[in-house]
Amino acid sequence: MGLESTIESLKSQGKAETEQLRKEAEQEAQRMLSEAESQARTLIHQREAEAKAEAQRYHVQAFAREELEARKVVLASQSQVLEEVRRLVSEELKNTPNRKNYLEALIRKSKLDLVRGRYFCGVQDVDLLESLIGKPAAGTVETLGGFLIESEDGSTRIDQRFETILEEIWEDTVREVASTLWPSA
User: Fold this and answer.
1) DSSP codes of every residue in the chain
2) From the CB of residue 118, how many other CB atoms can be counted at a distance below 10 Å?
3) Residue 151, SS3?
4) Could you tell me the end-to-end alpha-carbon distance of the chain, in angstroms, rounded to an integer?
5) Cα dihedral sign for 125, 127, 128, 133?
6) Global model pTM greater than 0.90
7) pLDDT reported for residue 128
8) Cα 89 to Cα 86: distance, rounded to the nearest angstrom
9) Are 142 and 158 in contact (CB under 8 A)?
10) pLDDT along the chain (185 residues), means of 10
């Protein structure tokens, strides 16, 4: 098998593994969001109750103004809840018992780039990644987990950090999360 066909085969396999990893990550994110949903519902009910109580204290003002103010408070509360959900998901990623599995999946996805370049990872993952990859890390970075791959000349970086993957998934699903938490909003 020629080098080009081997590379194409590895690229094809990498794409398939990337899609599988993305699906697994989305499933994991959905699971974490479901767990956080009950906490979020309790928090939003408290915030909504506080918002309604505050709106009633201002009964002297016109009805339209009361509704506007209450809506602002509810929206701020919803924003806080979304940030809390995101914080909980980040915390769960940081402390996940599946760390080795996640890192192995990211390594499989990035195998060719890891061979050609150098990688940087969080202090907490140095030993594990060095044993999984088979070469020492070029340095450390602050991260929840995962790694950055850099070409030898430093011109290209591939970001495989947990928080970057979460950010991509979050941007794709934040509206879905909000509609799940507040179906009538």
Assistant:
1) --HHHHHHHHHHHHHHHHHHHHHHHHHHHHHHHHHHHHHHHHHHHHHHHHHHHHHHHTTTS-HHHHHHHHHHHHHHHHHHHHHHHHHHHHHHHHT-TTHHHHHHHHHHHTHHHHHHSEEEE-GGGHHHHHHHHSS--SEE---SSEEEEE-TTSS-EEEEEHHHHHHHHHHHHHHHHHHHH-TT-
2) 16
3) coil
4) 58
5) positive
6) no
7) 94
8) 5
9) no
10) 78 79 73 74 79 70 78 83 87 90 92 88 95 93 94 91 92 79 73
* pLDDT of 33: 67
146-150, strands of its sheet edge to edge: 139-140, 118-121, 146-150, 157-161
Domains of the chain: 3-96+166-181 (no CATH), 99-163 (3.30.2320.30)
Structure tokens at 8: 């194409």
Query: pLDDT tens for residues 132-147?
Result: 999 999 999 999 999 9
